[in-house]
Amino acid sequence: MRYRPTDRVAVIATDDRVVLGVLPDGPILVLEDTAAAVWDAVVAMPVEDAIVHLGDRYGVAAQEIEPHLHRICGELLEAGVLMNDPDAQRRGRAAQG
Questions:
Q1: Which residues form the domain of 89?
Q2: pLDDT tens figures, 39-50
């Protein structure tokens, strides 16, 4: 499974913070530290890879990371800033030839 920002979200990212705004009238969310790392990971790679990546980054077993990642992603989905990317698998197959 992959996620991507929704079409109506504006993203401003720094080293340790991600500011998300649903346009045109909010909400505005500020993700810091671990939540920002989760955002960066899940929009850049499949969820399974994000779990491994974050586990390596923080020195924590993937099984410990997974429920927290899913909780954060659920909150971001509910806030309207993140969505499932149904085309990711198709794009991946097309790129493989």
A1: 3-96
A2: 999 999 999 999
